[in-house]
Amino acid sequence: MAKNRVICSANNVEYLDIRRAMCTGARTVEDLVKMVGICTECEGCKTEVAGILASVCGCKGVSLQAVVEAVKNGADTVEKVGEVTGAGTAEDCGRCKALIQNVIELGR
């Protein structure tokens, strides 16, 4: 489970700001520029944003691609995605469930 920290030091954008944007459909750096105002030029943007965008469940190490594939293969609920990938199944967490639901709704 990742803890909150500033990712974009130029514009003071935090990790949780990025995750919230992902839960509403952000999937690219360009989306994050528009939705939360990352700069794309500071060290945090250059080194961390791509990894954040690629990950859904830090507790279980599940990628966005794995969740998208599970959805494309028929997992149509958060629970089914969890059965296939392990995402959202950590005992004391589940913070990624909103993002998993968004992936299901958008299919991406």
Structural class: mainly alpha
How large a portion of the residues is in β-strands, by DSSP E?
5-15%
Q: Helical region count?
A: 6
Question: Main sheet: which strands, in order across?
Answer: 1-2
Instruction: State the major sheet.
Output: 2 strands, antiparallel
Number of strands: 4
Radius of gyration: 14 Å
Q: Tell me, briefly, the overall form.
A: globular
Number of structural units classed as domains:
1
Low-confidence stretches: none
Mean pLDDT: 95
Percent range for helical residues? 40-55%
Topology as a string of helices (H) and strands (E)? EEHHHEEHHH
Distance between the termini: 23 Å
What features would you describe in this structure?
The protein is mainly alpha-helical and 108 residues long. The protein has one domain (6-106). 52% of the residues lie in helices and 9% in strands. It is built from 6 helices and 4 strands. It has a two-stranded antiparallel sheet with strand order 1-2. Strands 3-4 form a two-stranded antiparallel ribbon. Strand 1 (6-8) and strand 2 (13-14) form a beta hairpin. The relative contact order is 0.16. The mean pLDDT is 95.
